[in-house]
């Protein structure tokens, strides 16, 4: 893969809802909060490894596209509830 796309670094992130089989958390199930924490840490690592200026430009573009104070959009689950009424 690195030859075809000229990649310097390539990562794979695998997750399981069942949880780890070894270590401190052996036998525990992952929950949504745990998976979100893993995703947050992974993204933070990518940012730290990457181009800081490009990161700032992406954040600015996201802030314009998805303003913090914008009203929440309805999701597909909300649409299903409407049909049932």
Task: Pick out its properties.
single chain, 85 residues, mainly alpha, 4 helices, disordered C terminus
Strand proportion: under 5%
Kindly report the average pLDDT value. 77
Sum up the overall morphology in one term.
Answer: flat
Radius of gyration: 19 Å
The percentage helix is 40-55%
Number of strands: 0
How many helices? The count is: 4
Largest sheet: none
Summing up helix and strand content along with how strands pair, one would put the structural category as: mainly alpha
Q: What is the string of helix and strand elements?
A: HHHH
The termini sit apart by 51 Å
Low-confidence stretches: 79-85
Task: Describe this protein's structure.
The protein has helices at 2-5, 32-49, 52-65, 76-84. The chain is mainly α and 85 residues long. Mean pLDDT is 77; it is low at 79-85.
Give a brief outline of the structure.
The chain has 85 residues and is mostly helical. It is 53% helix and 0% strand.
Protein topology:
Layout: H1 2-5, H2 32-49, H3 52-65, H4 76-84
């Amino acid at each position: 893969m690195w030859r075809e796309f000229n990649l310097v670094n390539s990562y794979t992130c695998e997750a399981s809802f069942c949880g780890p089989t070894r270590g401190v958390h052996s036998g525990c199930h992952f929950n949504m909060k745990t998976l979100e924490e893993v995703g947050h840490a992974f993204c933070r690592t990518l940012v730290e490894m990457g181009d800081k200026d490009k990161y700032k430009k992406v954040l600015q573009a996201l802030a314009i596209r998805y303003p913090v104070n914008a009203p929440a959009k309805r999701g597909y689950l909300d649409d299903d509830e409407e049909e049932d009424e």
